[in-house]
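Late entry, evening session. Most of the bench is empty. Finally got around to the prediction I had been postponing all week. Sequence below, unchanged from the version circulated by S.P.
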Amino acid sequence: MTEIDVPASRIVWSELPMSVRGEIESRLGTGVRSGSTQPGGFSRGMASRLALTDGRTVFAKAIPTEDSFAYRYRIEGDTATKLPAGIPAPAVWFTLEIDGWQVLVFDDVNGRHPRFDQPTELAAALAVVENLARMLTPNPLPGVPTLAAAHGPDFSGWRELADGGPSGDLDEWSRRNLDGLAVLESGWERATVGQTLLHTDLRADNMLVRPDGTVMVVDWSWPSVGAAWVDLVFLVTALASHRVDPEPILGSHALTRDVDPEAISAVVCALAGYWIRESCRPGGSQSAALRRHRVESGRATVAWLQRRLGWK
């Protein structure tokens, strides 16, 4: 399995302004001895395990409020703070906005990212998705957008390409079936209506396997409300990039085994279209890691979609 790497520009603890570090230490009630950057993610914001002078550790994130990712940090902090008790997610110590910085501080989880090629760790990841769906239906948080409202513009990639959008890197199968993919994609919103609070960004670097084998889910930056099975489809799409066949999982998992296959295909198609459209766009300011992730995700998802649909 290939680990998603840390952006080269990750902010580290020592680079935070003194006033921000001082306020964090004041809220913690002790000093910070050191900070170590944690793997995963694509923003340049700080993501560090802070070793405190009293022997405790916490996990802290910080980003300038002017950064385009700052609003996602705000959403993450607000969502994580309001999650019901018992949800397998780190507890929030505090959030703050000070001197142009957005800061989140959580429990430090003793764990590492799951290895999806290990059956027990894959099983634990699949189990936590089922548990989340059970615990978060109906949606317990007010004001969270529906999946369609949150991702409507994102999941229109095939339709945009069919309308003449940039398609320089499009593979032969996708070019040949572009009109059909656009039609299939158009059904995803209707297929995903539901009452479950969804994470919508489940992948290895947003999960932590603890020593007891259970999995915690982190980074609640993209919450939305939809069908209970959607998070599983999002996760197995990520699994396809790790050479794990999603089909046996979808056929046997409690969340998807009774779902209309056409509905699942519409969502897989929408995800594939998103990755392909993004990877066809010029690089711009996106990090090399993010662009590589998009390209690899697009290729893996299209390959799976091709097998799933059986189109020539």
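Two things to note before I forget:
The longest strand covers residues 57-64.
The beta strands are 32-37, 46-52, 57-64, 92-98, 101-107, 196-198, 207-209, 215-217, 224-226.
Will write this up properly tomorrow.
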